[in-house]
Amino acid sequence: MISEAFVLLPKSRYLDDIGLCKPTLLFHETYQPDFHTRTMLPTELCNLVIDHFHDSKPSLLTCSLVRRARDPESRFHIFQKVQLCRDTADSFFQLIESPHAILASAHIRELDVAQNSVTEGGSLAGDLLDGRAFQGVLTRCPADVFEHVQKLSVTCVGRWTLINAEKLSIGHRVKSVTELRSWMIVFQTDEEFQALITPIQALKSCLCRLYCSGPRIRRKITRMPSSHFQPT
């Protein structure tokens, strides 16, 4: 008996180059009385398929990528997006620190860190917790937890305060980020702003609404290429 599954992969230049932008055989299994062969696409391509159909259970079932017996990678695609706020961040960090957690191997694609709550008028509410949620991302999480994150949002921080060790860890924690969004952050110096942007080497798109204390920062913002900033 032969079991096959086909799926239409997302359009991309890389997949087109290798001829996979068409209905593609994900697995091919042949069963005979004394013979069993099994071939799979490379893990990287299987991960692309899982990500593309993450929100469509029928599609995932069709391509049989959710069965651990055929593809162990699928169990690491539970959380595509993680949202942390002042009330939930500590619980998440405790989960990460558990010896039973497998999130270090999770394929988390989006990380949204909202440090403080916002009132209806658009101002920060309550006692400001300067940087603790984002600091936790930089200090309490293993470096590989967010290695697949491509979209990073850091919002409602208020005054930006990071020690040197935390600044140095940004590039190691979010090294794959290509899109950065940040707003309601107060930078006192241009060095503080550069400490956030510079370590993210893969950054392609940046949308920031910043509260700047001096003109030097504003000049640097408007001169950065391939980015979109809204200085205040």
Protein model, in words:
The protein is α/β, with parallel strands linked by helices and 232 residues long. It has two domains: 72 residues, no CATH class; 151 residues, Leucine-rich repeat, LRR (right-handed beta-alpha superhelix) (Alpha-Beta Horseshoe), CATH 3.80.10. 28% of the residues lie in helices and 27% in strands. It has a six-stranded parallel β-sheet. A three-stranded antiparallel β-sheet has the order 1-2-3, with helices on one face. Helix 7 links the parallel strand 7 and strand 8. Helix 5 packs across helix 6. The longest helix is centred in the first third of the chain and has 10 residues. The N terminus and C terminus are likely disordered.
Short description:
By secondary structure, the chain is of the alpha/beta class. The protein has helices at residues 13-17, 43-52, 57-62, 89-97, 132-139, 164-173, 190-197, 215-223; strands at 2-8, 23-32, 35-40, 81-85, 110-114, 151-159, 179-187, 205-212, 228-231.
> What is the CATH architecture annotation of the largest domain?
Alpha-Beta Horseshoe
Instruction: Report, as a whole number of angstroms, the end-to-end distance.
Output: 66 Å
Taking the sheet with the most strands, its summary is: 6 strands, parallel
CATH topology of the largest domain: Leucine-rich repeat, LRR (right-handed beta-alpha superhelix)
Mean pLDDT, all residues: 66
Tally of strands? 9
Q: Give Rg in angstroms.
A: 21 Å
Could you say which overall geometry the principal axes of the C-alpha atoms support? globular
* Share of residues in strands: 25-35%
Number of domains: 2
Helix content class: 25-40%
Oligomer: single chain
Q: Are there runs of 5+ residues with pLDDT below 50, and where? A: 1-37, 118-131, 219-232
CATH level 1 class label of the largest domain: Alpha Beta
Order of helices and strands: EHEEHHEHEHEHEHEHE
Strand order of the largest sheet: 4-5-6-7-8-9
Please work out how many helical segments DSSP would assign. 8
SS class: alpha/beta
